[in-house]
Amino acid sequence: MIFRFAYPSVLALLAVVAAWLAFVLIKQPAGITFSMTSTLHSLAGSGNRFLARLPTALRAVLLVLLVLTAARPQLYNVSREIQSFGVDIILCLDTSGSMRALDFQLNGKPVSRLIAVKKVVREFIKKRELDRIGLVVFGEAAFTQAPLTMDKGLLLGLVDKMKIGMAGDRTAIGSAIAIGGKRLKDLKAKSKTLILLTDGRNNAGDITPEEAAEAVHTLGVKIYTIGVGGKGPAPFRVETPFGSSIVYQRVDLDENTLKKVASIAGGKYFRAADSKRLSEIYSIINREQKTRVKVKQFFHFRELYPFFLIPALILFGLEILLKTTIFKLMAS
């Protein structure tokens, strides 16, 4: 609960009360007019001087309480109703053998393509707090690693467990698109997106990427494709009888097919030759796939003015009582 005054500007009247009290205490002698000087003499004691100033003190406290009452003290809390029109996103990630290539860097050190991809994908998942995300892993075969879920902890854990070759060493791009589209089928989300990342060419599976893209697009799914890797031969670490060594091999990235897939499904194609560009691509997609959030706020108030008004009325009655009894008797 949070405390506040509904009309805080009214509190400025406290300055007026303070000024009035100072005027009364300084400009006017504290005392009461009596008809008998002997009675006045009897008021010279400190206790009676207090009684003489009591009406002024009561009036000052009364005015302060009335000002606080007029300012409407309140306790309140806020509840929020969030309606999220999120985006359903399937991430199709290539874990084939070519993702071993060491042409990406993190913190100045060479890393495999998959390690760089996993880092960027983790960041992307964390940004999509209100969206459902699913994971499809593909190599020679394609399978769903995680159905659509808002459990970001689960998704991040599964991304960390991805390994090169876990779905085979070849590349079934068409199958990955088909399985991703199947996961998005019949969902009521207003925006359905599939993001496909690969560094190779479709050389496995029973359906071509173009056929899969056409089928998926009829379901209202937009496809973004990302081609990973540089233009020239890529370095690979290989084990030999004399230890590990680095050899350079050409990786066949089929950019034309990836561009066609994106075009068919109303998306875009991106080329990521390094970690920085890969991160930029996911940031671009993150901005384009906006989540619409509608937030309603409800304020619950508890009025506290009775705790100030009731004492003020009591003081007002006490002041009247004192003036009509004790001080009246003292003045007679």
Keywords:
332 residues; six-stranded mixed β-sheet; alpha/beta; three-stranded antiparallel β-sheet; 11 helices; Rossmann fold
Report the β-strand fraction as a percent range: 25-35%
List the helices and strands in order: EHHHEEEEHEEHHEHEEEHEHEHH
Count of discrete structural domains: 2
Query: So what's the overall shape?
Result: elongated
Structure description:
The chain has two domains: 106 residues, no CATH class; 204 residues, Rossmann fold. Helix content is 42%, strand content 28%. It has eleven helices and 13 strands. It has a six-stranded mixed beta sheet, with helices on both faces. A three-stranded antiparallel beta sheet has the order 1-2-13. It has a two-stranded antiparallel sheet with strand order 4-5. It is elongated and about 115 Å long.
Q: What's the structural blueprint in terms of helices and strands?
A:
Blueprint: E1 2-5, H1 13-27, H2 37-42, H3 46-70, E2 73-85, E3 87-94, E4 104-106, E5 109-111, H4 113-127, E6 132-138, E7 142-149, H5 152-160, H6 173-184, E8 191-198, H7 209-217, E9 221-228, E10 234-240, E11 243-249, H8 255-264, E12 269-272, H9 275-288, E13 292-303, H10 306-324, H11 326-331
Helix pairs in contact: 1-3, 3-10, 4-5, 4-9, 6-7, 7-8
Brief sketch in words of this structure:
The protein has helices spanning 13-27, 37-42, 46-70, 113-127, 152-160, 173-184, 209-217, 255-264, 275-288, 306-324, 326-331, and strands at 2-5, 73-85, 87-94, 104-106, 109-111, 132-138, 142-149, 191-198, 221-228, 234-240, 243-249, 269-272, 292-303.
